[in-house]
Amino acid sequence: MYDRIEKLKTEIHEFELTSVIDIENFRIKFLGTKNCLKELFTELKNIPVDQRKEVGQLLNSLKLLAEEKYTKNQQLHLGQDEIINDLDLTVPPEKNVLGSHHPLSLIRDRIISIFERIGFNTSEGPEIEDDWHNFSALNFAQEHPARDMQDTFFIEKGAREMVLRTHTSSVQVRVMESNKPPIRTISAGRVYRNEAISSRAHCFFHQIEGLYIDKGVSFADLKQTLLCFAKELFGTNAQIRMRPSYFPFTEPSAEVDISCSLCNQKGCTVCKHSGWLEIMGCGMVDPNVLNACGIDTKTYSGYAFGMGVERIAQLKYRVGDLRLYSENDVRFLKQFQAGV
Ligand code: PHE
Fold it and tell me: What global pTM score does this model have?
């Protein structure tokens, strides 16, 4: 027994480990499930009792020796052979695949940055709104047909009836309630209307609205701000025109058209041969709205405007079908890697 242990000890010492294959053979021989030490361990019970302890200790140190040699060399040669065999240094590197921003985020950020440069900050509000912020504070009388103009989704939240906001004007109410003028803010976000989904309408879309309240704000300020915005976004040749309109929360109200940059106003299918494209609603904030939000109408006046992000994106990117914006088709989305 002593001889065999001694022989194995030299064998372990002399076993040459120069490659991963050697290491694996070493492991199988001395540490694997059928290793040669196991045999000696089973024979231990035949050893006379007075020698058993000593032989047992010798066997254990033999096992330890093999384990130490194995782990030391395994670390030394770790993966070396595989790397050398599998590495083809002539393979070109894999290209980094760049992600892209969603086209609506690109347009939103671009519009916000234009208004930020002329002193507007940004504000946010909840998508599930109460009647007050979406309608009543904005001068929509109870039972007034104007509430139907917006095809509202009504929902139950606890015992309260709430709405999915139909426009981001609700955020402006929140800003006016909690801030003192001067207020210059842009609110961007998702809004909901109960419309059948088609290429031209969706049950949710995105708006950007602006609000400016200060002493002596006039319609001329509104016009100039929107002209400046149109030129920034659509180029210095852009013109705007205003047509009288109606919104419960503004008086007077107007619809804003921008000159069609696709055909230089010569007439095309996008502008339906009129040379003009409708892009937003606007007006002077109705005094009833200012009063509802606790702003003194003797001192302050203001303007507001609101536009659909999809509509602007449609003009910028000529994407005709609204559904593409929410279908997550990577082939569509990855075309926007270059930005606005
Ligand atoms: N909130 C209006 C809409 O959703 C847009 C608008 C905003 C009009 C501000 C005038 C002033 O249609």
Answer: 0.71
